[in-house]
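Morning run. Coffee first, then this:
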Amino acid sequence: MPGSQPLSLPTLRAMTERGEIDTIILAAPDMQGRLQGKRVMPKFFLSHTAAEGCAYLLATDVECRPVPGYALANWEQGYGDFVFAPDLSTLRLAPWQKGAAIVLCDLELAGHRPVAMAPRTMLRRQLERLAAHGLTAFAATELEFILFRNSYEEAWEKAYRGLTPANQYNNDYSILGTARVEPVIRKIRNAMEEAGIQVENSKGECNLGQHEITFAYREALVTADQHVIYKEAAKEIAAEAGHALTFMAKFNEREGNSCHIHLSLRDAAGEPAFLAADGHSPSELFLKFLAGLLAHAPALTLFYAPNINSYKRFAAGSFAPTALAWGMDNRTCAFRVLGHGQALRVENRLPGGDVNPYLALAAMIAAGLDGIERDLPLAAVFTGNAYEAELPRVPKTLHEAQRLFATSDFTQAAFGADVVAHYANMAQVEQDVFNAAVTDWERFRSFERM
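And here it is:
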């Protein structure tokens, strides 16, 4: 039953009995937005639905090593289990894997208590706050990647040096250049459509081998769910073709991988809340929301740029922002207002391809809500080249972003002290590991000349 989403349990049972599905991927997004979980047999899933998994999944570093500093799970507590509680509204075919379906899960503690630090829970809580105002968030993420003609295994063995990009020159909007990689990109597009994730288009980008696939505007939680499913599927499809692709924010000194996030609100009647009564101007609510985004961007950069590498993407003239300003259809600003009529929206240009979409969307909604609730004034619209203007700047390092996040009264109020401490520790773990590493740059700089 291609393209049916969600799959109902009766449909899943019937497809299982016909031998069309033999595997259920039970997965939850971790702190990095990666899917973690198990492959379970249909009979087990249909009779039990939920499964258990070690709580260390939200208390490790990127390499899944248990690390200190997490109150949620640690050696003293014995690293107990979470419950993977499937959200059946996400149950769908996983057509890139033969005979498979996939379902996303919320992470719970005993007694069906949501795990406060779980990214999906964090977004849900901000959406509930928004709903109390009679508002619903809609969003889309524009996720870029770089495709290589090397396999993941070969890339690892080569220490990620000397890889062959799928295109040898800038293919931004090029039909000829993107035709070279259409066998892989087409498989990704079609697999997403078959999984019920509506693709809008694919296009080439500026860096060598860089591409982007975009999807239809959806409710914010649906968008985040589709984002993580697509990211997983794209890697698996590339691997099957003997290729590798990366979503890291800055693979080399050329253009980085962005993940611009478009967001707007609708009222209880489903009408665009960002649009004034005249049918074309931004509403007062939109201006307050935008003021919140700007006011709290420094404290929330950790959720937009969560890794050491993320900050290398913020370079002048790179189409990644360095200034915290807003502009009308101005790609040099961190926040770009664009669209006409009902399509009026804000584009957050801070996130890179390594972003966790749940955390970024939760951050945007929390900031915008604060702007609405406290009637924050909006700075004047910026016109011109924000790279060269005297404006507040984007935090330059993960260390700076962590400090701003951890010491902000706003983040404490919006997410809770336990959540803030959890993600501040995540950033500290990354910094500690990075500071202990000896890099190629240091060897080339120092081996002979120091």
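The two ends are 65 Å apart (CA to CA). Good start to the day.
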